[in-house]
Write a sequence for this structure.
């Protein structure tokens, strides 16, 4: 069954890419905040290059150019490509979540004699998390939909599954609308879970 | 206790402090008044190095702050600060707001920090709010917690930047009451305020700042009843 197999692949790619994206995003954010010139510079480049080019182009470059000679399953290649892409967005989400915390909070912490690190850890991060988590949830909803271009590297994900069925049955309507419906169901469920979670976060302050 | 020598501060090309010289003695209460934009906040924030002076020297208890920019945290814990916007930590209960720095910076034991915090809360009249989140408090209560939080570090000196300016009028009194108590206990304080009646009552000395300098200073009755210089007179005629 093309759709079921494709659906599983789409979910696999999304989950791996999301995990990789979080790791990369965290590292980039830490590096940026460390203000160590060569690394912070690298993080800036990384983020602007990734954000300034289409994800399909990144995916095909990684598959056909960078990893062309490496024999990796396409699911893994797609996960890496989308993870690298997502990392840039996650880094920006973390950065803006931290910067959204009122400057007065840092000043209050420092004026009590807390070091920069302790101020971050006990005062800024716990508040920033409340900005970051909902935005991360959104990022992963976007990511799920973006994996639909995996067909460009001949990976049989959900979207590709619909296309395959269409070309075999000569019926476009049913498979493509089914695909759309499945994506919609998944994102709707994620959104619902997310807004429930957001309400919980907000009620705690 | 605090000596300020030729303090200058630039923000980019803008010279905000143009050479401040003053000395604050132990137990002295100094109120800073002056028009908006004259550099009062900047001066205060230089005293605990939230702003780094461009030039000049600040000496607290014989230690030059400006020569010790590496040991900022060490120096800052002896200088308490209370902000106009309270800046309580919204994700922590009142008690945790107060005990955080004593535990993490002074390495106090949790139970000692808590009992100290309860003492301070009793002093500011908020024992019953210890386990509330700041969002449940009124402005006046928030500011009293902020004062207790700063006091928990046993600072040698307390800085207040317009502690009542963000409050509804009916809450100003309760905060001034707490500050007045500190004054009577002999706390060394520098208070930027627009409450002229309060400044006159609690302070040992008034600094009138204008355009980045201490334009005139003196005992409260000298400044308020008999100002010597033109801009002081002009300012007071507007605010009194
Ligand atoms: N971080 C900053 N960057 C640039 N300019 C600043 C900064 N902080 C203050 N200034 C400027 O410095 C001048 C003095 O500001 P300051 O806040 O010290 O005045 P103030 O006497 O406290 O005024 P107010 O009574 O309004 O609080 C103002 O012109 C202000 O715009
Ligand atoms: Mg000010």
């Amino acid at each position: 069954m093309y759709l079921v197999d494709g659906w599983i692949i789409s979910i696999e790619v999304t989950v791996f890419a999301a995990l990789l994206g979080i790791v990369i995003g965290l590292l980039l954010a830490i590096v940026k905040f460390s203000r160590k010139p060569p690394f912070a510079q690298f993080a800036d480049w990384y983020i602007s290059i990734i954000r300034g080019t289409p994800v399909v182009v990144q995916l095909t470059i990684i598959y056909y150019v960078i990893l062309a000679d490496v024999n990796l399953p396409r699911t893994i290649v797609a996960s890496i490509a989308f993870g690298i892409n997502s990392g840039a967005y996650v880094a920006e989400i973390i950065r803006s979540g931290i910067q959204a915390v009122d400057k007065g909070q840092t000043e209050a912490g420092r004026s009590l004699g807390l070091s920069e690190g302790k101020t971050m850890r006990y005062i800024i991060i716990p508040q920033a998390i409340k900005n970051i988590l909902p935005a991360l949830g959104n990022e992963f909803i976007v990511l799920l939909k973006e994996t639909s271009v995996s067909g460009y590297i001949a990976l049989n994900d959900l979207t590709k599954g619909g296309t395959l069925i269409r070309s075999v049955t000569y019926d476009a309507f049913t498979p493509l609308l089914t695909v759309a419906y499945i994506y919609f169901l998944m994102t709707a469920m994620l959104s619902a879970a997310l807004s429930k979670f957001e309400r919980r976060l907000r009620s705690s302050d | 206790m605090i000596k300020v020598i030729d303090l200058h501060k630039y923000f980019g090309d803008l010279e905000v402090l143009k050479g401040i010289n003053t000395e604050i003695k132990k137990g002295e209460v100094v109120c800073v008044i002056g028009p908006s934009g004259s550099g009062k906040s900047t001066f205060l924030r230089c005293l605990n190095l939230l702003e780094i002076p461009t030039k000049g020297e600040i000496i607290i208890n014989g230690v030059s702050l400006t020569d010790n920019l590496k040991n900022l945290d060490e120096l800052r814990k002896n200088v308490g600060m209370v902000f106009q916007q309270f800046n309580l930590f919204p994700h922590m209960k009142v008690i945790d707001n107060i005990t955080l720095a004593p535990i993490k910076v002074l390495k106090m034991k949790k139970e000692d920090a808590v009992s100290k915090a309860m003492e301070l809360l009793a002093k500011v009249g908020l024992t019953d709010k210890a386990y509330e989140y700041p969002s449940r408090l009124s402005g006046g209560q928030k500011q009293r917690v902020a004062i207790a939080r700063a006091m928990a570090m046993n600072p040698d000196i307390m800085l207040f930047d317009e502690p009542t300016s963000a409050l509804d009028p009916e809450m100003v009194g309760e905060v001034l009451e707490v500050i007045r108590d500190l004054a009577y206990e002999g706390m060394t304080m520098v208070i930027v305020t627009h409450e002229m009646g309060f400044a006159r009552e609690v302070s040992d000395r008034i600094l009138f700042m204008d355009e980045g300098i201490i334009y005139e200073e003196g005992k409260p009755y000298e400044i308020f009843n008999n100002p010597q210089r033109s801009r002081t007179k002009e300012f007071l005629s507007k605010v009194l």
